[in-house]
Amino acid sequence: MGKVLKDLKTVKKDLKNLLESQPLAVLATQNNGNPYANLVAFAFSDDLKSLFFATTRATRKYANLTADHRVAMLVDNRSNQATDFRQAKAVTVSGRAEEIDKKREKKFLDIYLTRHPQLKEFVTAPSCAFLRISVDTYYLVTRFQNVIEIHLTTS
């Protein structure tokens, strides 16, 4: 049991390092079976239970999220070189997105703006929705095929 906990701590540390190293992620949504992907600036909570991003309410991604809250987000550190097959890491985050009140949940907005201060005007605009992904599972891939699943409900 001790080795499993130590390994989980190491995996979570690696996961945090990957998330911290990348300011952008690919967000996947869908509506009526039609997939859609976008680049988004993101931030995450220290406990890894939540990720945050912003979008204007007039976007397709916002309409998709309103219709179906299930999302996936991909974060990777690839360099588009042949060495990526051995060295790149990627994580797919699976969860549910919901809009949160920027004023009431100021601590989450502060996490986001600490990471992306250049987006303050954008994210605080009345037309902008601030969203939280409640994470169910992280799928961390290393060495192109080594997959580790981290289920937050059991870890």
Report on this structure.
This protein has a single domain (2-151), classed as Electron Transport, Fmn-binding Protein, Chain A (Pnp Oxidase, Chain A). The protein has helices spanning 2-21, 60-67, 84-87, 106-115, 120-124; strands spanning 24-31, 34-41, 43-44, 50-56, 70-76, 89-99, 128-142, 146-151. The protein is 30% helix and 41% strand. Strands 1, 2, 3, 4, 5, 6, 7 and 8 form an eight-stranded antiparallel beta sheet that branches. The protein is an alpha+beta fold. The chain starts with a helix and ends with a strand. It contains five helices and eight strands, in the order H-E-E-E-E-H-E-H-E-H-H-E-E.
The total count of strands amounts to 8
CATH class: Mainly Beta
Could you please say which CATH topology applies here? Pnp Oxidase, Chain A
How much strand content do the residues show? 35-45%
- The proportion of residues forming helix, as a percent range, comes to 25-40%
Separate helix tally: 5
Architecture per CATH nomenclature, i.e. the level-2 architecture: Roll
Give me the Rg, rounded.
Answer: 16 Å
Average residue pLDDT? 89
Query: How would a textbook summarize the main sheet?
Result: 8 strands, antiparallel
**What is the rounded distance between the termini?**
13 Å
Order of helices and strands: HEEEEHEHEHHEE
